[in-house]
Amino acid sequence: MQVWQRLALILGTVSVSACSSIQFGYNNAPSLLQYQMDSYLDLSDSQEEILAQELSTLQSWHRQEALPDYAAMLRLWAEELSVKRTLTVDDILQKQDRLQAALLVLGQESAVRLASLVLTLGPEQKKRLRERFDDGNRDYALENQRPPKKMEAERRERFVKQYERWLGDLTREQMQTLDQWLLSQPNNSQLWGQERIARQAALLSLLAQAKESGSAQQAAVALHDYFQSLSRYRIAELQTQREGRKTALATLTADLLNQMTPAQRSELRSKLLGYAQDFETLSRRH
User: Fold this and answer.
1) pLDDT tens per residue, range 158-203
2) Read out DSSP for 199-268?
3) What does the alpha-carbon distance between residue 156 and residue 174 come to, in Å, rounded to a whole number?
4) In the chain, where are the structural domains located?
């Protein structure tokens, strides 16, 4: 995973697995992200100071501007679960689009905050980043050389965990729905590996050109464009499949939610309200 994308994962908090861990994880997000970026770039003391200040400012903005919107969105979704109705693919796609829009806004703000650091990166740091990418790509290639049955079993396990995180244990009917869906969707690990490398190359090119421009504003624009580009694919075959895959995932989610038991519906609603409450609490801590 590219180091810059960690911003969305850490500050967005969308993928945190338990409500009780959100506040702890979010409050420590700048320190965690700084540690991870340092491991990729070997930052100097002065760069550490720049990054610490910018991440603190970014988090303050995120608390005040983004978290209240997240909370309102989740409360609305929880309220929709109060009345049992059949969810459509369009219902799920609209929710996905709203989450994507929130991450794009975060990317825009992150670009402004990280531009000053980008201008300070030296040749050795960029070389170190390239080497870390190469190491990760070799590991990825090795992982995808394992027996197909083992990889498919792990893929299934990832999907099960993803849905059970929100619903609790899946029913037999839901497991059958998931298994049928997985059989219909190819596991394009080779293409994803190519996409991974293409995104890394784009980032390395950005960093090489940023130093030459010497302008924080130009660096911010370049970073902004890069973050926005992460919502698309650089590998043509993946981009061609993008809308179809997006719709397929939405179809799977709608089918599983329409098969919810009363206990699962209650679990999902409780999770959404718990996240919303945590976001509201965090937004008040300046």
Assistant:
1) 999 999 999 999 999 999 999 999 999 988 889 999 999 999 999 9
2) HHHHHHHHHHHHHHH--HHHHHHHHHHHHHHTTS-SSHHHHHHHHHHHHHHHHHHHHHHHT--HHHHHHH
3) 13
4) 3-283
